[in-house]
Amino acid sequence: MNADVLIAGAGPTGLLLAYELGLAGVPALVLDQALHPDEQPRANGLVGRIALVLAHRGLLDGTSLHPLAAPRFPFGPLSLELDRLEVDPLHVLPIPQRDLEKLLHDAAIGVGATVRRGHEVVGFDEQDDGLTVRVHGPTGEYRLTARYLVGCDGGRSFVRKHAGIAFPGITSDEVARMARVHMPAAEVVVADGALAVRGVRLALVRPNRTATGSITITPHAMLDPSADPDVYILATSEPRPPHLPDTLTLEDLRASIHRVIGADLPITGARWLRSTVANSRQAETYRVGRVFLAGDAAHLFSAGGAALNAGLSDAVNLGWKLAVAVQGTADGLLDTYHAERHPAGRRAILHTRAQAALSSSGENAESLRELFAELLRYPGPSTHLAALLEGSDVSYGPGPLVGAWAPDTLDEHLAAVLVEPLRSGKAVVVDNTDDGRFAAMTGPWRERVDSVEIPGACLSALIRPDGYVAWADGAPGTLREALTKWFGTPRTPIRAAVPPGIAVRP
Q1: Which residues contact 174 (CB under 8 A, 6 or more apart)?
Q2: What does the pLDDT look like over 467-487, one tens digit per residue?
Q3: CA separation (Å) from 220 to 90, 205, 270, 331?
Q4: What pLDDT, in 10s, does the model give residues 227-248?
Q5: Does domain 3-76+91-169+281-352 have CATH number 3.50.50.60?
Q6: Which has the minimum average pLDDT: 119-123, 337-341, 403-407, 415-419?
Q7: 298 backbone φψ class: left, alpha, beta (φ>0; ψ -120 to 50)
Q8: What is the assigned CATH class of domain 406-487?
Q9: Pick from 337, 320, 468: nearest CA to 403
Q10: How many CB atoms sit inside 10 A of residue 289's CB?
């Protein structure tokens, strides 16, 4: 085999997947058709649990980055006032996508991944023991063999199409026009969460709806303190015309702004102009045989903030499972990827489509916005929607403990114990018994599972490499079943139960 796992696409999802595989001892090969990383600004940060996951992995060490609780956050055209809640459930990590990709690229290379740019997957065929993948590179076409192929190659994914996976959903009837624009400070006043210019007052960050569309404006310095204070990230949304030009000009953007707000803004220049039509789609399956989908190849959303949270969470879920499959046997383990992440993607589609409905035009949508605004005065609805945006409503088990994300569920002492194992990408058994019986059982899986003995702790638990609880406070036999389910048949024989009073730490 040329590679155990071949990843198509060197965006954030593909690079994080390569890092997760490398942590588990499986160096991945990443191919991307572009010769260089995309310099055009896209996402301006991470929203949701993935910000905490990257911190737990240690990927933010040595940087000035750390997850922040969001005091307020847009939900469509409305604002969740989260600083009024007792506990703010939504986290953000301000980082431009190009900086995120650089961070993840360096991390993946550091654990043994190889990234080839200018190499595009153009075909593949599956055999019993792997795949033959056809690649077009700078010097022509060649072939690679791999055990598994993961399509992280975007919304127009070749891997998804070639695998014959349907991608049902809807295409928006609106077009968004976006740019980084420059407006002189002398003409702009920013105060109290709003921007005032030439008699026009616009709320910052969230969409400002008018009869003809909407406009969203955010000072770039709010997302990047080093940015020029006269630069703003601006986007308009209007009904999609029958024919949409391939490129967006500054005059096109100015005309769109005038149609939406009935006035001109003092824009003296613009960069990174582009127009997009939103899609809301989800692949029918995230796996066909030895082929998997993750990120935008698996799902597209009609509102911002969800794509990277969902895609990077796909990578964290899939990476360690592929590594287990490569290194041993784990019957049915790879099927849990679709079983767990497809419903999570569906939840993200649910709230992004709801945001799109709130942002639409017409009297029905106006009534919906008015009613939602009333509901958001209460802590319950705000907390629920913030959990949707965070992704903390996702559980991978019957609950309330098994299937939950451990750092959210365990007490502070036990959560602190998980810091080092989660940083290394290994699972961990927390053992609260006096004789270390649960820790002793991890011996045959020592390459994949650490153990920590804390006699008298509130519970014993098996925490997966992605931080989710796989087993809690059961009999020794049920722990052995859980270890086998999630980490495969051990390479060494399972030892007999350790006699009471003997503590074993692999």
Answers
A1: 213, 237, 238, 239, 240, 277, 278
A2: 999 999 888 889 999 999 999
A3: 21, 10, 13, 49
A4: 899 999 999 999 999 888 889 9
A5: yes
A6: 415-419
A7: alpha
A8: alpha beta
A9: 468
A10: 12
